[in-house]
Amino acid sequence: MKKYNKFEEFEELMNEDLHNIPKIITGRWLEQQLLDRNSRFRYLGFGFSDLTNHEFEDNIDFKTIRKIPFSTRTKFPEKHPFHFDRSIYHVDDDIRKLHEEGIDGSGMNIAIIDFYFETIPNELKESLFYLKKFTENSEVSFHGTTVACQLCGKNLGVAPKAKLWFYETGQGRNNIINDLIIALKDIYEKNKKGANIKVISISGSRHRENPEFQEVYQKLLNQGCYIIDSPLFGENFTSINVDANTGELYYTDRQEQAMGSEIATKIAIKTGGKMTPLVTTENDYLYCGQASYSWSIPILAGYFVLALQVSPDLTYDEFLDLARTTAKNENGIMVFNINGVIEEIKKEHMKTM
């Protein structure tokens, strides 16, 4: 399988099956592209496009525009509707306040097991402590850099000062599961030697079918190391997007199509509506207005790391209870309140002093 480790090669690959862009881009055309679940446009949008010879129709609804990906490499015409607040380059203000207090993951070790990436973006150069690659011939994926930066990115991460141990898996079901089990065993052995990795973020789920998983999972739990993966996340949480200009919360098109009482009862984690590093580049960013469910998992892991920084003996079940009791109701959506969780932990500490 060919590796695309240069921007030009990746750009060529992505453009192979992007839709032909009309000279006049309408809101209707954009909505149609988003409805195609097999289209790369849903994930990359105008990220690799030169639009200087195109026009946008007047008065396209920003509720459509905020869903469309673009990048810092996108070339827009002089008049265009893609105007976003600079907050898309940073975590939420509430999390930044915690960082200013020193609650930023300092002294904590956290691991991610996810897809391969060749180029290390500047967002990760300070936090990436260990990088293990299992397969030499593996296709680059944007997913690995995205989840890593949601967790430990310098500007975009929940826990930017934590030490990140990243295990790169190959793609394909068997490679993912086999590499993941090997990674978990390696983490267990490293913890025995003092690595003290406290949380492991895994955005997948199929490893649960592997009998070896339960064995190493129990060993890690005995070390005080917790795995936050897709099945665990889905029990109590979901993702939500944030309008960069108004702060309005909105679900993805896919969530809207599957909307039911189950989603409404879960705690929402603010994920989409901001930048993530553009794969194969060090300095460029891709805007993601409709974040994947899997991108919320490392954010939850990061929240848990911040809580553990304040209260090292906290269990995941205790953390979950705090998340439930402190969640904020924002226009009918129960939103994770990491500041509330930290405040409750501090109160408990004051009682024991």
Short summary of the structure?
This protein is α/β, with parallel strands linked by helices.
Structure description:
This protein is of the alpha/beta class. The protein has two domains: 7-83, no CATH class; 89-352, Peptidase S8/S53 domain (Rossmann fold, 3-Layer(aba) Sandwich), CATH 3.40.50.200. It contains 14 helices and 15 strands. It has helices at residues 7-15, 27-35, 41-44, 62-65, 93-100, 142-152, 173-192, 211-222, 230-236, 253-257, 261-264, 293-310, 316-326, 338-352; strands at residues 24-25, 55-56, 70-71, 109-115, 128-133, 163-169, 197-202, 226-229, 237-242, 249-250, 267-272, 274-277, 285-288, 328-330, 333-335. The protein has a five-stranded parallel β-sheet with strand order 5-6-4-7-8, with helices on both faces. A hairpin with a 6-residue loop joins strand 9 and strand 10 (249-250). The longest helix is centred in the middle third of the chain and has 20 residues, at 173-192. The radius of gyration is 20 Å and the shape is globular. The model has no long low-confidence stretch (mean pLDDT 89).
